[in-house]
Each structure stands twice: as structure tokens, then as C-alpha cells.
């Protein structure tokens, strides 16, 4: 085993100690800055930890009431009474799933259409990229709940406002992801199609789409899960689905009904998450075979 002389080893250890000390100071400084920023933000937003501490019991007691029937018995002691509206809630939950499905599919198509003209490596006209990117930013910047309220006022209560609201927001959110995927493709197939006289659309169709299709589908499947939750929330403003009954139960303090519907939503989202994860893994396995 090689042993360096102490005269040579000492400067190395000293230099190493200085580097470690400098990194520790940087980490400590970063944590201090983050703590100060958090404190200033909390003061500016009027967030009061004392209020949280004093009223945390109201939060926990509400969940305790969710697990009780009107008879003060626990909900699991009488499942039939707990899920008395199962038929209606299942139909509304199915409507929520359909809203999420149609909105995701529509939004994904819109995102795909906007991804190529928004990409720097495919669209040479700067003004086209600028316009498409701003449109996508607008679509994802406005909350889907705001879109839902606008469309409910325009088209009335029902599933249509929900589909439109989620589709627009999905197009904006997926459009950004799709654009980043397209901007990282291998350009050699694109140059090959262009060299044979292929149009810009042909380049996108035959050189770009095969490279990105699996990733686009993977992100779209992930968005389905997000939109199921979104479809539930926008139901609060009358945009269809189980959210309409859920907000009524919350406002009227029908605690057991709230917990029953929440349980159905949670189980459904978990099932969708498991299914979409398996599909995404299969797509990735097909793209990168062993």
C-alpha cells in the first residue's frame, strides 16, 4: 500500500478541507436565503402559523365526521346506508370519466398540431413560433376552473363546458411538453425527407411522428389521470360529472355522502394510475427493446 509523505499529504488534505468548508457555507447560505424568502412570503400572504396551530383540530374533526353516518355510527358498519346513492354516483362518475377522456383526446390532438409549428428546429418562421407559443401559454395559464365558469355561462350546465375547459387547458399543458420532445429529435430523418422533396407536413408525418409517438402517448396517458381529478373539480361550477353532487353534499353537510363519493373518486383515480403506468411502461419497452 502506497503511503504519501506527510509533507505532501498535508497540503492536499488542507485544500480538500477548504473545498468542503466552502461547499458547506454555500449550502448554509442557500438554506438561509430560502428561509428568509419563505418568511417574507408568509408575511406578505398573511399566513399565520398560530392560526394553523390553534385550528388544526377543526381540520381533523371534519374528517372524523366524514366517517360517521347520521346515526353517529361509523360508515363501515352500514355500507348499504353509506352508499345509498351508488347507482346515481356511479353514473355521474362515469360521466366524469367520459369528460376527462374526450377532453384529453381533444386536447392532445390540439397539442400535437401546435407542437411542430412551435418548435425551433422545425419552424423557421419566427413569427409563427411566437404566435403558436403564446396561444399555448394562454391555454395553460388560465385555470380550467375559470374556463369552465365561462363556458357554463355561455352554454349552460352540463358536460360540454367541462369538456371544452379541460380540452383547452390540456392542449396548452401538453403542447409545451410535446414541443420540448419535438425539439430534441434526431434531425437526420427530417433532412432525408426534405432532400427527396417532401413538404413540411410530410417531414412531420414521416420523420418526426415516428420518433416522438410513444412519448406523446405516454404523456397523454398521464394527463388522463390529471383530467379525471380536474373533471371532478370543475363539476363544482356545474360543468357536469360527480363534482356537482359532491359540492352539494359539502355545502349541505352530508358528511357520509361526501366520504362515499370521495372514496369512489380515489379508487377510480388509483385504478387509472395503475393502468396508465403499465401502458406507459409497455410503450417504453417497445421503443427500447432489450
In the predicted model, the low-confidence regions spanning at least 5 consecutive residues are none
The fold-level CATH name of the largest domain is: MetI-like fold
Residue fraction in strands: under 5%
Main sheet specs:
none
> What do the pLDDT scores average to?
87
Structural class: mainly alpha
Number of helices: 11
- Rg value: 27 Å
CATH uppermost class of the largest domain: Mainly Alpha
Shape: extended
Distance between the termini: 42 Å
CATH superfamily of the largest domain: MetI-like
- The beta-strand count equals 0
The amount of helix comes to over 70%
Order of helices and strands: HHHHHHHHHHH
Count the domains: 2
CATH architecture of the largest domain: Orthogonal Bundle
